[in-house]
């Protein structure tokens, strides 16, 4: 493993000098024991992940060898004989817009003019009522 300074065994065998007012040696040993456990767990996880990575790389290589390489030039299907759903929907949309669009425009203009007449007469009746007072 690259960039590893201490092994679990190095941590276990490390001795510290004791001084008059130093750390509690029992507490330090317990902490270092926990550090060793974590260190070993990380090593196991690292090995497991490396094995899985190697297995997946081998599987990718195997599948890429089994599958023929896609050619860069695709065979062009004749466009005149191949009508896609998109083309059909586009044509249908254009026809609907042409047929129904004109009817909708006529109905909208008729509705707008009748609404304008009603609003205009209502305004005059309001004026007449105001004049009576």
UniProtKB/TrEMBL annotation:
Protein family according to the UniProt entry: Belongs to the GpsB family.
Gene designation per UniProt: gpsB
Gene3D superfamilies from the UniProt entry: 6.10.250.660
Alphabetized InterPro entries for the sequence: Cell_cycle_GpsB, DivIVA_domain, DivIVA_fam
Alphabetic keyword roster: Cell cycle, Cell division, Cell shape, Coiled coil, Cytoplasm
Source domain of life: Bacteria
Localisation per UniProt entry: Cytoplasm
Quaternary state and interactors: Forms polymers through the coiled coil domains. Interacts with PBP1, MreC and EzrA.
Record has Cell division as a keyword: yes
Summary of the function given for this chain in its UniProt record: Divisome component that associates with the complex late in its assembly, after the Z-ring is formed, and is dependent on DivIC and PBP2B for its recruitment to the divisome. Together with EzrA, is a key component of the system that regulates PBP1 localization during cell cycle progression. Its main role could be the removal of PBP1 from the cell pole after pole maturation is completed. Also contributes to the recruitment of PBP1 to the division complex. Not essential for septum formation.
PANTHER family, alphabetized: CELL CYCLE PROTEIN GPSB, CELL DIVISION PROTEIN DIVIVA
GO biological process terms held by the UniProt record: cell division; regulation of cell shape
Any single Gene Ontology cellular-component annotation: cytoplasm
HAMAP family associated with the record: GpsB (MF_02011)
UniProt name for this protein: Cell cycle protein GpsB
Region Disordered, annotated ranges: 104-133
Ranges in a coiled coil: 32-66
Listed Polar residues bias regions: 106-122
């Amino acid at each position: 493993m690259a960039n590893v300074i201490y092994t679990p065994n190095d941590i276990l065998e490390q001795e510290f000098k004791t001084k008059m007012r130093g750390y509690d040696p029992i507490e330090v040993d317990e902490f270092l024991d926990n550090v060793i456990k974590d260190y070993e767990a990380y090593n196991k996880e690292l090995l497991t992940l490396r094995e899985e990575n190697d297995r997946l790389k081998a599987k990718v290589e195997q599948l890429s060898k089994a599958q023929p390489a896609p050619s860069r030039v695709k065979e062009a299907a004749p466009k005149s004989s191949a009508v896609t759903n998109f083309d059909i929907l586009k044509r249908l949309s254009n026809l609907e817009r042409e047929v129904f669009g004109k009817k909708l425009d006529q109905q909208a203009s008729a509705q707008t003019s009748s609404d304008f007449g009603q609003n205009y007469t209502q305004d005059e009746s309001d004026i007449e009522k105001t004049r009576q007072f």
